[in-house]
Amino acid sequence: MILINCPYCGEREQSEFTNGGEAHVVRPKDPDSLSDKEWGQYVFFRSNPKGIFYERWVHTHGCKKWFNAVRDTSTDTILKIYKLSDRRPEISEFQTTLKSPSGEPIVGSGNFAVKK
Amino acid sequence: MWESPDPKKGYDVIIVGGGGHGLGTAYYLAKEHGFKNIAVIEKGWLGGGNTGRNTTIIRSNYLWNESAHLYDHSVKLWENLSEDLNFNMMFSQRGVMNLAHNEHDIKEMKRRISANRLNGLDTKWLDAKEIKELVPIMNTENLRYPVLGAAFQPRGGVARHDAVAWGYALRSNEMGVDIIQNCEVKSIKTDNYKVEGVETSKGLIKASKVAIVASGHTSVLAQTAGVRLPLQSRPLQALVSEPIKPVINTVVMSNAVHAYVSQSDKGELVIGAGTDGYNSFTQRGGYDVIEETVRAIVELYPIFGKMKMLRQWGGIVDICPDASPIISKCEVKGLYFNCGWGTGGFKATPGSANVFAHTIAKDEPHKINEAFNLERFSDGRLIDEHGAAAVAH
Amino acid sequence: MSSIENSNCNYITNKKIKIFFDGKSYDAFEGDTIASALIRNKIKLIGRSFKYHRPRGIYTCGIEEPNALVQILNEHNEPNTRATIKRVYDGINISSQNRWPSLAFDVGSINNLLSPIFSAGFYYKTFMGPRGFWKKIYEPLIRRTAGLGKPPNNFRSKSIHQNHNVDILIVGGGLSGLIAARKLIDTNYDVLLVEQDSYLGGILKNSNKVDSIDGKKTTDWINETEKLILKSNNIKILKNTLVTSYNFTNHLIALEDKFVGKKIDLDKSELILHKIRTTNTILANGHIERFISFRNNDLPGVMLASSFEKYIHRYGVVPEKNPVIFTNNSSTFSLVKSLIQQRCKPLAYIDARKKEDIEDELKDYLKNHDIQFFPEAEVEGCQGNKEVEKVRIRTNNSIISINSSMLCISGGLNPDIHLFTQSKGLVKWDEKIITFKPNTAFQNTITLGSVSGNYNFHKIFEEVEEKLSFLNINKYVAKIEINVEDDYSITELWETKNDKKSNWSKSFIDLHNDVTTKDLTQAIDEGYDRIEHLKRYTTNSMGTDQGKISSINSLGIVSKLLNKKISEIGTTTYRPPYAPLSFAAIAGRSTYEFYDPERKTPIHNWHVKNHAVFEDVGQWKRPWYYKKHEDETMHQAVQRESKQTRKTAGILDGSTLGKIEIKGKDALEFMNLMYTNAFTKMRPMTSRYALMLGEDGMIMDDGIICKISDKHFIATTTSSGAPKVLAHMEEFLQTEWPHLQVYLNSITEQFTTFNISGPKTREIISQIFTEIDFSNEKFPFMTFKSFNYKNTQVRIMRASFTGELGYEIYISPEHALELWETIFKHGKEFNLVPYGTETMHLLRAEKGYVVIGQETDGTVTPVDINFNWMIGKNKKDFIGKRSLKRSDTAREDRKQLVGVVPLDKSQLIDEGQHIVECENLPKQIKTPIEYLGHISSSYYSPNLNHCISMAMIKGGNKLIGKTLFVSTPSGIKNIPVEIVKPIFIDPENKRLIS
Amino acid sequence: MNKVVTLDGLDIYQKNFQQILIRGDGRENFNKIIKENLSVSPPSKNLEVTNTDKYLFAKSSFDQWNLLYLEKQEYNNILINISKLNKVDEILATDYSYGQVYFEVIGKNKDQFLNKLTQFDLRPKKFPLNSMAQTLIARIECSIFNLKDKYIITCNRSFESYFIERLKDIASL
Ligand SMILES: Cc1cc2nc3c(=O)[nH]c(=O)nc-3n(C[C@H](O)[C@H](O)[C@H](O)COP(=O)(O)OP(=O)(O)OC[C@H]3O[C@@H](n4cnc5c(N)ncnc54)[C@H](O)[C@@H]3O)c2cc1C
Ligand SMILES: NC(=O)c1ccc[n+]([C@@H]2O[C@H](COP(=O)([O-])OP(=O)(O)OC[C@H]3O[C@@H](n4cnc5c(N)ncnc54)[C@H](O)[C@@H]3O)[C@@H](O)[C@H]2O)c1
Ligand SMILES: Cc1cc2nc3c(=O)[nH]c(=O)nc-3n(C[C@H](O)[C@H](O)[C@H](O)COP(=O)(O)O)c2cc1C
Ligand SMILES: [Zn+2]
After folding, report:
1. In a 10 Å sphere around its CB, with 0-12 CB exposed, 13-18 middle and 19+ buried, how is residue B331 labelled?
2. Distance CA C622, CA D62 (A)
3. Are C750 and D63 in contact (CB < 8 Å)?
4. How far A70 CA sits from the closest chain C CA (Å)?
5. Does D83 share its domain with D124?
6. What CATH topology corresponds to A3-93?
7. Is the pLDDT of residue C718 over 70?
8. How many CB atoms lie within 10 A of CB C401?
9. Are C202 and C285 in contact (CB under 8 A)?
10. Does C650 score more than 60 pLDDT?
């Protein structure tokens, strides 16, 4: 279980938090002006990248505050945690991190033997 | 045995993803729709995705008509699959039980049983005594949320997960399908909303029809064609115990005391957990989820406290907002999706592959998968199986 | 039983105890494992193998054991216990597994002769036809033969958890772990050292490889080190504790056995599961010896060489005085020395290495002690009935047979990389030591000693010094004197060439799952050539040992078959746990009665005393109904309670309802966004029933909103929805509308709530709150008042969920019981009844009120339940508003809420049944029957004297007045019903506002 | 005062305190109003606890405070104070005197004991003296205050019996 550094409480286990999905999705100012399709996009569609992901968390069993995190979903490494009021960090701030054989790797599982 | 050829320059249909659904789709395309020039492209090894890491529960007792029809189409195919493929799927119709632990569960299940019956399914209600007779080791009274009853589908059961991938691979290969392993599709090539092929780690492969059946990775691939899908990829974990002599003769699932268990033909208990609460592609998940699951198992079956966890793993499931799959065309011509199976698509493998093959071949949905389109997320015609699917396996 | 053969052994005391194995009693010493005790008693046959039921003995001396699994009868029948780990105690009752009728004569062993059928992938290819045979014959048969041990008959565990937060965790208290710990003594780091064994020392206690450290005998050095550590104020040691899982962010799980060598006390925690969170992890967990495949390499009597040596040094037992040794590397030299030290002597020493590669020291030693030496040779196979009798050696193309009952083998040493790869570290193939070793760590992980692939004693201090130099620690370097050649040398050998004798002869790659090397070949021939397919097709390394002594060997064999480098084959994934981990320990105490917290209202005990039957609602215990007397059924109780409430008065403990205080200068705007209703024109000190939607337009929760002012509200929520609603509000406040100045506090627990209703309620409570005017004019429906009562704060709201005159009373928990009892005192003359949730549901159904989660199921909009009037049409926006206009949500023929009354008014309809247009159903439904919707609530109404139901049906509004049918759970004949408006009592609200 | 657990190096008592929950922006005006009405100053640092013999005043996150009276107050005074605070739009003060139950944990083995029920890092370097934290203990949301030689733990009242049972259970094993 990963450890998450709540900006208000410090490091706690992930099970104290609830994930709130993609961050920086702004609720449309005037929903009535949107088509069904556009509205559906807002309600149901969220990015789901393998790699760097901007996401929201709330410290449900602690201070109950929301904050944002940048996490590499291919390794579950948290690259940055920032408050809602902070600027969204640029993606260029983060390098891709080490991939490893014991999680889902980029390609297969390193078992590339092919019979001759 | 199947061949491992190098990819040709182009195919009539490319199927991305060598799991059960992808291989099955190739099989039915070749068998029922006469396609000769098909490739299945798999980035790792066949069946190494969720097909190779699921708890293999098969049932069709879903609430809404659309789902019941889809999943039961599948169960009917399961019933003949070993013969059809001449490969033993070890499909074991030992029944699947969904426990009710409170008044709300009871109400929900009775509703589902009634709907199932009208749809021609065999789900029935068991009271606590009948449950105890089927599963004597279950603790039904002496627990925090007592077992008050269950919905039981006798035709449900389990099958050998690997056999599904291998069986479809063998037979579709015999019909000329190219099965290409260790080849990752990097992007989908399109031109003016028309599919042209796929860019892979082994180069460009052309096709006018491309079907994406990559479970957790489907939305990542869709993105490369400019298509957004309402999917989130979550870890789903499972574990097995050490093998013991048979003690549990059916499949038991519970939502309130969240865990599900069956005993494999080799003797180990196959136990499933809930999804982790965040997106991840690590095939791992958090230890807390394992603890939650084992707590529930020990609660329901105190004697399992003396048993041991042998191995624990995770898969990457693609969760849809309404807990129902997407088997659909999209705005890009020639691009098809079969995804969003989330925590419960193994049971649908033959059925979904069968209707998906139809959708690809005819460029229009089969009656059974019509409702599982992408438009539902705009017009609101969702097929919400959250409440009724309980544990969605 | 022989006496202790090596009196210098480390683990045994002189105390004799009795143990039972398969019903027979044997002597053992305190400190013995089951395995060492059985060896001491010359017992070699311990169990039968998984598939072929071949005789099996003890293969190793530790956690890696693939064979010797036994059942402990007097510990609740614990199955699959490793005989090589479990310490015996006086009276322990052990049974062998997987044999019938007896261990010596096992009928299942016929499988061995039928083995061609059971070859790789046999499941998939056989047992198919004829039709129906799989289900009726083959499958039951296969399942009956499955599994090893038996589960217990009953058991309840008391195992607990212990969390640790440390700076440094050291896994393994062997040589390198101890050196690291010594360097950390009295530093600023909190350190935890975890050792699976009962003693520290690791390799120092397992062999005689090391003579002295720092000029001291090894045992003295270990004792000294341990003392220093214990004296320090920053290092803690956990023994008998096995690290099993290495999770993300340096979270490790370790299991401590509190009853090593002791009978288990069922009132105490048998196991402690340690959950360790650390900043740095030092893995010093050593290596594991691997085996070699040859013909019948599974016979009892074949044992790993270092394990054999461990039995001598740990338990003082020499398993065999004159064994044959077969090796491909230098590490077996110390076994020869250990044997000679015990005045025993190997019959032969077979070394696969080239003669010139073999250490001179070893060659001289063998010569000096006159031990038969076969360099560049290998074991072709061994033979015997239930144990090794003969070892056949291939040397220079000739075969030599030696009679011996034991064969010690070593196929090399593997760094125990399991935990390291669990941590997501990358491993790399090392051509020199012919194995995988850690390469790049993924977390803050350091590997020391054998696990890092360092097999050289002289380099150990250097390695520790260098790898820990980033820490601020002590210098400690000492001289280490060793007994054997220090440079590790090995030649590649995975399987020897064998002369197959009969079907019975087999060369195994996985002893636990009975996988032979032939299975690997066959699987590859069939096309299963990825290591992951091979594993699954053959079940190689999927047993309880997870291939600890053999999985690298299978890579070696496969690499040869495929003509590939091992590094290209790759490993399968190492997954937690390192060794099988007790379910009871994982569960800890948060199971059984503690599975989920129970929430109780402040007057819970009153309900208990008054014979309430409770219902679980979320975590809450709520009175469901009250049994007036022993024999009263639920139906009777509910009828009684509901009737009385409508007749005079009834009271419900509503404390579980969620209550949220909302305040701030933008509170009004906020509330208008959160709920469908418009609150702007609402007068202060009035209240209103309100709906909350999700952004998808579906009803999420309901409640009553009290407006104190435009800047101050109090909202109630459903009992189970309370946390969700508060979180939902907080989410929007913090993330979407931070510009709104609004604060929320939950006051659910600060107030106890009583819902009193019925025509006599006004009379009852007027007598209690005498200064309040409860008249309709002064206290109209949907208003509320706050005031002081007996030095506490009370709020009363006039509202009702029953359709009767009713009040909700909020009071502090401390004063709650007193007030509750006062109400009963004053209610006595009116026969005031307490009622539970079931009556509440019935009463509201009579009135046509919906219950969230019963009429609604996440697919229902306010319009669907005829609550159009609750939608603030003039509001520009509220959560979910836009979704109501989508083409599907705006359809006229959606499912709508209706009332249902059976034509035969006494016929009770079952909840969950469906409304159809046909009178009868076919006996067996083959083609789906169309239905309109389902019955969401159904009751016998004592106040109407007939059955009533509510239903959600397609186009329901247009069907009012129609006759339709409702299915029954299993009958053919459907129940004819009339569709009516969903309100059965007092449609004019006369009672409500009386 | 009620003794819940006694072990070697550990005592747990159940106590009664009164409590006010305050929400606000923590700026100057907020501090002024609190000071004026309650005659105590709110701590300004997150998780900080002002600890006198009479009360604990803790800042439990950036916009919420707990004022815990260690000495029994006239209840009416508390209510009056609250209503005074609530006159100000920017503040929400809620009486929580009865919403929670309180436990005092004393003794040298208190960390080890609590760590059987919570993962929370109690080491002084992570949980300094005179600070507070909100976390899960025995699967229940609790607040924990680190005071000299003791912890005070609070949890919602409805969990009281479950929590006590968990404490006693662990103590017995
Ligand atoms: C722990 C667990 C338990 C489950 N339990 C059940 C259950 O009891 N019952 C049930 O019905 N369902 C269950 N499921 C769900 C079920 O496993 C899946 O829904 C189903 O197997 C999906 O099959 P698939 O063929 O669509 O996907 P997969 O088997 O995952 O196949 C997708 C394939 O696509 C490949 N791929 C991905 N990206 C690329 C790329 N870029 N290029 C090429 N190839 C790519 C992957 O490597 C993978 O092999 C469970 C799932 C898990 C993880
Ligand atoms: N000359 C040779 O033949 C030879 C061969 C191998 C190693 N060596 C030398 O031997 C020394 C070995 O020392 P070391 O400290 O690396 O190994 P070690 O074997 O001395 O210690 C490892 C310790 O870790 C414990 N352990 C293993 N897994 C564990 C787990 N999961 N949880 C808790 N405890 C666990 C073991 O019980 C053991 O006590 C090294 O100096 C190495 O160079 C020499
Ligand atoms: C139904 C089922 C049964 C399994 N039984 C075993 C088993 O008996 N032994 C074992 O080691 N693994 C077993 N596994 C787990 C696999 O070894 C493996 O962990 C899983 O397929 C995921 O792959 P991975 O761990 O290589 O990522 C089983 C998996 C499934 C889906
Ligand atoms: Zn926090």
Report:
1. exposed
2. 36
3. no
4. 16
5. no
6. Folate-binding fold (3.30.2270)
7. yes
8. 12
9. no
10. yes
Q: What pLDDT is stored for residue B149 in this prediction?
A: 97
- CA-CA distances (angstroms) from residue D17 to D13, D14, D70, D73? 12, 10, 6, 9
pLDDT band at C631 (very low <50, low <70, confident <90, very high): very high
Query: Quick one: how far is CA D169 from the chain centroid?
Result: 23
User: DSSP code of C629?
Assistant: S
Residues in a beta bridge with C257: C271
Query: Whose alpha carbon is nearest atom 5 of ligand 2?
Result: C455
The verdict on D54 and D104 lying in the same domain is no
Q: What secondary structure letter does DSSP report for C173? A: -
User: Are residues C267 and C207 both part of a single domain?
Assistant: yes
Atom 48 (ligand 1) nearest CA: B49
Q: Residue C485 pLDDT more than 60?
A: yes
Neighbours of chain C (3+ CB pairs under 8 A): A, B, D
Q: What is the pLDDT of residues C836-880, one digit of tens each?
A: 999 999 999 999 999 999 999 999 999 999 998 888 888 999 999
Helices marked H in B86-174: 103-118, 128-134, 161-174
Last residue of a domain, one of D68, D95, D122: D95
Burial C109-142 (b: 16+ CB within 10 A, else e): bebbeebeebbbbbbbeebbeeeeebeeebbeeb
**What is the DSSP annotation of B204-224?**
EEEEEEEEE--GGGHHHHHHH
Q: Which two tokens stand for residue D105?
A: 């944990």
Final residue in a domain of this structure, among D72, D95, D118: D95
Domain coordinates of chain A in residue numbers?
3-93
If you average pLDDT over residues B335-344, what whole number do you get? Answer: 97
Do C642 and C762 reside in the same domain of the chain? yes
C-alpha–C-alpha distance, residues C505 and C499, integer Å: 9
Question: pLDDT-based confidence at A111, cuts 50/70/90?
Answer: very low
C283 min Cα distance to partner chain A (Å)? 17
User: In the block, which residue shows the tokens 């989920």?
Assistant: C596
Helices marked H in C828-953: 837-847
> Which one-letter DSSP state was computed for residue C101?
B
- Rg of the Cα atoms in chain C: 38
* Contacts of C602 by beta carbon, 8 Å cutoff, 6+ apart: C655, C752, C813, C814, C816, C817, D157
Q: Tell me what the mean pLDDT of segment C703-718 comes to.
A: 97
Can you say whether the dihedral through the CA atoms of C221, C223, C228, C234 is positive or negative?
positive
Integer-rounded Cα Rg, in Å, for chain B is 20
Q: Are residues C897 and C991 in the same domain?
A: yes
Pairwise CA distance, residues C481 & C322, whole Å = 28
Of C708, C726, C746, the domain-final residue: C746
Could you tell me the residue range of the domain that residue C948 belongs to? 890-994
Q: Report the separation in Å between the CA atom of D85 and the middle of ligand 3, taken as the mean of its atom positions.
A: 61
Residues paired with B151 in a beta bridge = B98, B125
For residue A114, name the pLDDT band (cuts at 50, 70, 90). Answer: very low
Q: Count up the domains in chain C and report the number.
A: 6
Say which CATH number the domain at C703 has: 3.30.70.1400
List, for residues B7-38, the tens digit of each pLDDT value: 999 999 999 999 999 999 999 999 999 999 99
- Determine the Cα–Cα distance for residues C869 and C862; give it in Å rounded to an integer: 9
CB contact under 8 A, A19 and B228: no
Q: What local confidence, expressed as pLDDT, does residue C235 receive?
A: 98
- Which residue out of D120, D134, D144, D159 would a mutagenesis test of the A interface target, given it has the greatest number of A Cβ atoms within 10 Å? D134
Compute the average pLDDT of residues B287-306.
97
Q: Which range marks the domain in which residue D27 is found?
A: 18-95
Compute the distance between CA of residue C951 and CA of residue C965 in angstroms, rounded to an integer.
Answer: 12
Confidence of residue D22 (pLDDT cuts 50, 70, 90): very high
- Among all bound ligands, the one having the nearest atom to the CA of B236 is 1
Termini Cα distance of chain B = 31
